[in-house]
């Protein structure tokens, strides 16, 4: 029971109201450590309750001390979507108390956030870039901070946020409590922990597996020109259940979303070029079931929490194997079973081997559906040749069109 971990009646009442019955392993291990006031380095699978593991004891600590108008706890997260998710969770945990929780992230007007900070808040959930904007404007004061949490620290490392983290850490008191949560514990994360924490207690409930055993993994070997047909077949066989589809580029996500719509499958699209309102609307439509499929870049690999999401499809494999772990972590959450399907071509062989080493669980090879395989055997009809044009002219036209198509695609390879 949560009360046996040292949480008070207010926190336990919140958990009962929210339907929490028993703590998860990371909550069991981390909550008593956080309540002791010492620094913590924790690793756990996505979807195992990390937000409650740091949020509940942080709220408990703030309740035992006098309040100020300045923030006393700060949670740093890598993406806007995760900021929204963590803000919603902490607000629910703190509902029976007088503690105030604010979300600070980019993509929206800063004026409303300034007003919120001026009214006073106890806990701030922020992305590093927007928080630095506030620090530079002097609209946030971190001098009274007691608890600093770095959530999804490995993702912040991947996204190049270390300089921003150092800037934020320089603005908070040295005698703070620092909590660092991560889905992986690479050497770089260990070094980051040593830089930002003091004698941190380490909690690791992931064992040797980076992905929960609740997820099954399948691989479809298919050429790039047949991926959309295979994706449609997978979604059709899956019935009416929801699915999250990952693409490598923004342009690719747009094209897949449009293609699904033309095939009669309601889909939303989310990526870094979308406005914050469009991103929020797409997520809301997906969470409420108004759209069946959400097509996304790796921007949705963190911060999307749908307890019963049954299917994740990698339309494109990620550029690095570790991102596969975070993508498929969107399914198989909260003890439910999930399925991860990847569409791979011959160029993905080396990356697939790296993924297999990380996942440990065997990747099941699935044959291409017969109907699609038969389509692939039919050669495409040659384009009609216009009279009066020489082969040299046609070749120049084709090379020009090819360059116009390929170059913009390459410019978007690393962005989300």
Mean pLDDT: 83
Give the full name of the CATH homologous superfamily of the largest domain.
P-loop containing nucleotide triphosphate hydrolases
Rg, nearest Å: 24 Å
Second-tier CATH architecture of the largest domain = 3-Layer(aba) Sandwich
> Oligomer, anyone?
single chain
Number of strands: 14
Q: Any idea how many domains?
A: 2
Q: Helix- and strand-based class? A: alpha/beta
Series of H and E elements: HHEHEHEHEHEHHEHEEHEHEHEEHEHEHH
Secondary structure: helix percent? 40-55%
Major sheet = 7 strands, parallel
Distance between the termini: 41 Å
Q: Unreliable segments (pLDDT under 50, ≥5 consecutive)?
A: 373-416
Count of helical stretches: 16
CATH class of the largest domain: Alpha Beta
Spell out the key features of this protein.
42% helix; single chain; 14 strands; Rossmann fold; 416 residues; disordered C terminus; alpha/beta
What does this protein look like?
The protein is α/β, with parallel strands linked by helices and 416 residues long. The chain has two domains: 2-204, Rossmann fold, CATH 3.40.50; 215-371, P-loop containing nucleotide triphosphate hydrolases (Rossmann fold, 3-Layer(aba) Sandwich), CATH 3.40.50. Helix content is 42%, strand content 15%. The protein contains 16 helices and 14 strands. A seven-stranded parallel β-sheet has the order 3-4-2-5-6-1-7, with helices on both faces. Strand 12 (311-314), helix 13 and strand 13 (338-344) form a beta-alpha-beta unit. Helix 3 (50-63) packs across helix 4 and helix 13 crosses helix 14.
């Amino acid at each position: 029971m949560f009360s046996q971990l040292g949480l008070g009646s207010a926190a336990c009442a919140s958990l009962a109201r929210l339907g929490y019955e028993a703590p998860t392993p990371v909550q069991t291990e981390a909550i008593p450590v956080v309540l002791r006031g010492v620094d913590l380095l924790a690793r756990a699978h996505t979807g195992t309750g990390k937000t409650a593991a740091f949020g509940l004891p942080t709220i408990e600590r703030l309740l035992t001390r006098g309040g100020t108008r300045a923030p006393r706890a700060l949670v740093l997260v890598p993406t806007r979507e995760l900021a929204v998710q963590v803000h919603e969770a902490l607000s629910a945990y703190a509902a029976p108390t007088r503690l105030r929780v604010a979300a600070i992230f980019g993509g929206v007007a800063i004026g409303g956030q300034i007003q919120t900070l001026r009214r006073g808040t106890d806990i701030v959930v922020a992305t590093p870039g927007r928080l630095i904007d506030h620090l530079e404007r002097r609209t946030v004061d971190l001098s009274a901070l007691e608890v600093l949490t770095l959530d999804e620290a490995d993702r912040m490392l991947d996204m190049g946020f270390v300089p921003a983290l150092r800037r934020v850490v320089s603005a908070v008191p040295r005698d703070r409590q620092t909590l660092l949560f991560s889905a992986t514990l690479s050497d770089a994360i260990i070094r980051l922990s040593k830089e930002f924490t003091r004698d941190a207690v380490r909690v690791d409930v992931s064992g040797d597996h980076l992905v929960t055993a609740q997820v099954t993994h399948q691989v479809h070997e298919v050429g790039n020109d047949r991926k959309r047909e295979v994706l449609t077949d997978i979604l059709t066989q899956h019935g009416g259940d929801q699915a999250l589809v990952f693409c490598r580029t923004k342009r690719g996500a747009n094209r897949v979303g449009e293609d699904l719509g033309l095939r009669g499958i309601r889909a939303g699209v989310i990526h870094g070029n979308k406005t914050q309102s469009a991103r929020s609307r797409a997520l809301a439509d997906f969470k409420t079931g108004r759209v069946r499929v959400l097509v996304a870049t790796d921007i949705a690999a963190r911060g999307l929490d749908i307890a019963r999401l049954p299917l994740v499809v990698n339309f494109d494999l990620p550029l690095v194997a570790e991102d596969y772990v975070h993508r498929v972590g969107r399914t198989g959450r909260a003890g439910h079973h999930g399925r991860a399907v990847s569409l791979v071509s011959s160029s993905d062989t080396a990356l697939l081997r790296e993924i297999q080493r990380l996942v440990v669980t065997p990747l099941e090879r699935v044959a291409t559906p017969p109907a699609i395989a038969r389509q692939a055997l039919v050669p495409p009809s040659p384009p009609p040749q216009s009279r009066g044009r020489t082969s040299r002219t046609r070749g120049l036209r084709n090379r020009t069109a090819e360059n116009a198509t390929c170059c913009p695609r390459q410019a978007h390879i690393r962005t989300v």
